[in-house]
Each structure stands twice: as C-alpha cells, then as structure tokens.
Amino acid sequence: MTGRNGWARFVGYKVLRLVSLLVGVSVLSFLLMQFSPVDPIEAYIGGDMIRVSAEQRSLIEERWGLNESPMERLLTWGQALIQGDLGTSMIYRQPVADIIQERFMNSVALMAVAWLLSGIFGFTLGVVAAMRRDSRLDRLICWYCYTLASTPVFWIALLLLMVFGVWLGWLPVGLGVPAGMSADQVTWGDRAIHMILPALTLSLTGVASIALHTRQKLTDVLESDYILFARARGERGFQLFRRHGFRHVVLPAITLQFASFSELFGGAVLAEQVFSYPGLGQATVQAGLRGDVPLLLGLVMCSAIFVFTGNMIADILYRMIDPRMKEELMS
C-alpha cells in the first residue's frame, strides 16, 4: 500500500464517518426537540400568548411549517440542507448560516485561547510533577488538579466573576463588547478584555486532565529500564527529560488535548451563559429553550464538525509524527 493510497483511504474513511455522524446527530436532535414539552410558538411570543387567537396561531404554524408532520419537516430541512440552506431562525429572524458564522468567530477565538493556555500550562505542570514525584510540589500540583477536576465549570465562572468583575472591578462582568457602543467603535482591545474571564474559566478547567495524564505517563517512562540506564550514565533533570521523556509524553498529550474538543465546547456553553458572551454556546441554549429547531440543528451540526475535526487532527498528527501508527490508522 503506497503512501498516497493510504492517505486516500484515510480521508475517505473520515469523510464517511463524518457524514454518518452528521446524519445521526441531526435526526436524534430533531426527535428530541419533537418530543420536547417546549411549545415554540409560546416560547417565542412569551407573555403576549394570551392575546394570540387561534387563527393567528394557525398562521404562525403555517409560516414556520409547524403544521406539517415531523417526517415532512425533517425531509424538507434535509432537502434544503443539501442545497446549502440551513433555514431561518425562529427567534432571531435571520438565516441560520449567518447566525452561526457570526457566533462561530466569537466562540472559536474564546476556545482557541483557552485551549492553548490549558494545553501549555497543563503539560508543564504534569512534567514538573512527574520530575519531582512525591515531593511537596508534586502533591501541591496533584491537589490543585484534583480540586479543579471536581469543580463545576459554572461555579468557577461565577467565582471569577465575583472576584475580578464585582469585588475588584478589574474586568467587565459580561458581554463580548462594551455595552452601548456601536460596532465601528469597538476595538480589538475591548474584545480581548471581555474575553479574559471566559477564557480563564475554560483554561482552568482544562488544565487538570492534561496535567494528570502527562504526570502519570511520564512517571511510567521514568521507571523504565532505558531511563535507569540513562541515569547510570549521569543524565539528570531537564536533559534526561528532553532526550528520553519528551517524545514519549508529547504525543499522548497532543491526542488528549485535541480529543478534549467536546469538553471544551461543553464548557464554553456554560461559561458563555454565565458571562453573557455572544457565542455558539449561548445561541445553543436559547435555541433549545425556545424550540428553535432550524437553529438548534445547525448548531448541533456545527458542534459535531468541530469535535470531529479535533479528533481527526489528532489522528493526522499521530500519523505524521510517529510512522508506526500508519498501519493502525489505515486498518
């Protein structure tokens, strides 16, 4: 099997899995919304529902296609999707594609910063803990990681909000840009300041898993025979890690970090709600609570592609860095 054929099979396999994943999550999400007790018309109109007559309700149902059977609605949505149309949001009255595009950039910037910070600090803490195993520093790092791993994301978000936003007043308490300013007046500095607390929340919660995993992996490596032989030759400290440990722990760390895209997106949903950050997570919550099926299906597909991309990048990196993984990836 040549390298080009192997890549072709790999890409074809991934595309097939992505298509089946999108079909599965779309159908499942539609069924969950169908059996949801949320009435989309009542959720949209709110307190003025008592003033809506039966005729007006019928017209709204006909306008949104709610008077059709669930199968007809799903097939209509699928046919439009094939033509590149994700539909129109019921609550925002805008094309779903435009909403996702606008929110996606905000969420990607937030998650990218948090992902990089948690990966760098988590890997560093894991390496330091393993190299100083059973020391006070190791126990302190482990206590810190176990505490973070058992702490809900929304609780950390609320704590940071109260400390840095309310008590100290150093950072804004919410929103993605300053309130009351037009779009042309908002600078990149304003956006960065409003992103600090949500990004810090996500990065803190993502540190624990990568740090504990790296510590355990490097501890196993340091107990191996070839490490004992290297120590017998006089290698110690950072030189020992650089020459014999880094290569064995960086690949699992990269894989784990890319595989954490699903947890990252889930944490972003909670963090964006707490800080009223205008991203995909906040839009997902609004779509679910108000029965906006077209918007929710579009967001579900977007999140599925996001998580799938993270896992695929991890596979590709493994294939490029470690040639021994080629056959396993192709099987």
Written overview of the protein:
With 331 residues, the chain is mostly helical. Helix content is 76%, strand content 0%. It contains 14 helices and no strands. The chain has helices at 3-34, 40-45, 54-64, 70-82, 96-131, 136-149, 153-167, 188-222, 225-232, 237-259, 261-275, 280-289, 293-321, 326-330. Helix 5 crosses helix 13 (293-321). The longest helix has 36 residues, at 96-131. The protein is globular. The chain starts with a helix and ends with a helix. The mean pLDDT is 80.
Give the overall average pLDDT: 80
Poorly predicted sequence stretches spanning 5 or more consecutive residues:
none
Instruction: Count every beta strand, where a strand is a DSSP E run of 2 or more residues.
Output: 0
Distance between the termini: 12 Å
Strand content: under 5%
Q: Order of helices and strands, N to C?
A: HHHHHHHHHHHHHH
Question: In which range does the helix fraction lie?
Answer: over 70%
Number of helices in the DSSP assignment: 14
Structural class: mainly alpha
Query: How many strands, what sense, and barrel or not for the largest sheet?
Result: none
- Overall shape: globular
Gyration radius over CA: 24 Å
SSE map:
Layout: H1 3-34, H2 40-45, H3 54-64, H4 70-82, H5 96-131, H6 136-149, H7 153-167, H8 188-222, H9 225-232, H10 237-259, H11 261-275, H12 280-289, H13 293-321, H14 326-330
Keywords for this entry:
single chain, 331 residues, mainly alpha, 0% strand
Compact overview of the structure:
The protein is mainly alpha-helical. Helices cover 76% and strands 0% of the residues.
